[in-house]
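Researcher: Batch entry, complex prediction.
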Amino acid sequence: MSDFNRSAPVEWGLRAYLLLTFAFVFAPIAASFVFSFNVDRFPSLPLGGFSLTWYQQVAADPLVWEGLRNTLIAGITVSVLATALGFGAAYTDFRYNFFGKSLYLALALLPPTIPVVILGLAMLAFLANIGLSGGIHSVIIAHVVMCAPFAMAIIRLRLSQMDASLEAAAWNLGASQWVAMRHVIIPFCRPAIFAALFITMAVSFDEFAVSWFVSGLNETLPVKVLGFLQGQVSPKINVIGTFVFLTSMTLVILAQILLMKRSTGGKAGQ
Amino acid sequence: MTSEPLVAFDRVGKRFGDFVAVEPMHLEIHKGEFLAIMGSSGCGKTTTLRMLAGLEAPTEGEIRLAGERINDLPTWQRDTPMVWQSLALFPFLTVRENVEFSLRMRGVGKAERRQRADKWLERMQITEFADRNVAHLSGGQRQRVALARSLVTEPEILLLDEPLSALDAHLKVRMQAVLSNLQRELGITFVYVTHSQSEAFSMADRVVIMSRGRIEQIGAPQEIYRSPRTRFVAEFLGSSNVFAGRVAEAAGGGIRVETPAGTFAAPLGELAAALRPGDDATFVVSDDRMQLSGSRPESGNALEATVLAEEFVGATAVVHLEGPGGEELRAQKSHDELARLTLSPGDKVWMSWGPEAGHVLPGG
Amino acid sequence: MTASDRSGLAAGPVPARREMPGQARPAGAPAPGRARKTVSLYGLTFSLPMLLWQMIFFLAPLLFLVALSFWSVRNFRMEPDFNPDNWSRMLGRSVFWEAYLRTLLLSATAAIVTSAVAFPASYAIAFKLSETARRWAIFLMVIPFFTSYLVRVYSWQIFLSDNGIINALLAKIGLGPFPMLNSNFGTMVGYLTLCLPLVILLQLFSLIFVDRTLVEAAHNLRCGRLRTVFEVVVPAARVGLTIAALFCFILTFGDFVSPLYLGGGDPPTLSILITDTTKSGQQWPRAAVVALVMIATLLVIAFAAVRFAYKERGR
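Model: Structure tokens for the complex:
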């Protein structure tokens, strides 16, 4: 914007406001981190003193371990399935035009816009009706529905960076469709595929509402947290929150690094 | 050239629903020739090339390669490598891996693959970049990689889809020389699609000019330049003066056409042979045959026109003029000659040409 | 190169294809897919899994919800039925309508408040930060998506409770205590926690694409700074701003955590009604009625918002 469009008070006012906004967004995240090391059960200021008590309590809680196990099983399975489905749909959108394509895309992309309570209730009722509710598999089924659209979006974005004649060039050089898929499309999409794996895993890690509806007794970690929330004040939530945050952030940063590598992926010489 | 063409298009047409991309056409491409297909945007030239490559299926007719019908052969089973406008180099492979790609697809062993790829890297003078990422090469180098990648299987034919359009003018000319030499040395057939007249006319043995999905003219560059067969070609080449009119007289090896700008004479060529007095006809005369003078010449064809502007084109200049009926006219002159004439916009001047310089096409 | 010349860009080899060449199509060319539609194993391998999965586990459950809303419950057991009782019972209760109105109001307020709070921030990021700073700001705004919403809500409880952090700080300067938890204020804080990062990002992406020359042209035409924001920037980014507000509405409409744990849950919102009805026994058909009313409401709101977002002025 032009040099005349700046006035110092407005500039600084906006910057201060931006800082406040970030403060609001990060206050609860930072607080849960800080209070996870605080000795008091009822958190307040001033801080009571540094302690790892709550970490020890969480580590000693078999319910937490069980929840973590379920979360991991679900997260890993979901990420693989959702990424596979998302890849297929992204490639379909990239390459084909067919009657009803917009309906196909709507079906593939809409789930995240449906409120989770409704999705949870619908899943619970439907899965119970066909005898599939109340297990980790129910969580997996539901999470794949919710995560596949994310995987699809990430991989579709990558495909749109691809020179569309690349695939045709491979065919022209003697690669059949399957071979071109293996030697051209998949290598090109590799960073996005890994990013999709990590992002979908992170989404599954944090999801509590639908899991709460369908998981029955096989609760995942976030569902346990919801349970703690219903009970009395417990700093364990802060510990679990910190743990889940660090795990998710690791996954997201890994995904980010992979996506940053962009077109110059692979084997650069020199 | 042999009697058996390498490629034959037999009534080959392509439509997308109701849209006709290529009207049923006949075209023969001979072994070892450099054929350019030229036309403006949307004329069907790239569709024609893609049908030959097997990337687009003809909706009618038959394409034969060395006498065999190839309509139903997918591109990966034909040996018709193509160089893309975008080059379509695989960004996740090194230069060498790109070149080796089609050998790998054919199951050629590692050692042989490497040896054959190296030969082409060397031939295209890109050996030093063999292990680089293709993203880090210059435009000309990428061009060479694309050529090496397509030629490594030593095919009989190479298809090129506007491969030079992304290069700057200087590099374009250099790559034209590279392509011409390569084609001559290899002796294989090049089919080259372009919208650039200078590329087509400077490299090709024969040029195909297409418009709206139809072939307008096929011929050697000089032939097309000297005697465009249709009004479209004459106007497309941009260097001709075109007058629409009616035949006034056709007899004794000569023909006279009456146009709003005057009545002009030309030899009775083969195209105009069937014309009778009263028929619609188009009179064409190339801009380098036009004489300019201050007064009416004593003989030959002449008309008085108004100078609009001069355009500087390297060693020569083009004078743009307007005829008495509003025709857009042009004359190509040397700078010396123009200096003698001292024209300025708005001046009246006589344009003239000898009877042998023009030719007549049937139709308005 | 032209549209028609390039029409085959994304297209594949000729045989066994179930589509016309993709992407750019020549003007006047008809919709693809009419000629030669042979379904190939290759194409199906990639397209079919997503289709089947979402039909079976997304579409079918939602449709099943409709059927379920007509089932009857006898002796704590659900039985397939075609019984409009659930509908008349639920829609006949004033509690339901109170919850409905309350939810609608809360979500609408959340959409407006969040948009208003977000706008100066996204404006600052879009127009006042350097390229690098902007990238960092975006990165920071993405982080909250990967932190547990539950944990953040729990944190707000620590901040907002009667003897929580904020009241402790206020007490030091002799103010308060102010009751903030279990109120609409608490709910709103939760909703902001849920939506603010997303709304900022969505607003940001539309603001970034506002043509800077429009702003210069406005100034050049003697439109002042603040006025330019409302007369030029906001209209130019209308689609993004509306969609951001819509997302905020949808998210808060379906959220049960903030109204329950920060708002106190009494009187309930529709989503609390659903969780209560579902978890307290076998009254799923009634929960289904609530869910379907919610979906219908959301569809109407979403449709209206999109219409508004893309409405062209003039003819």
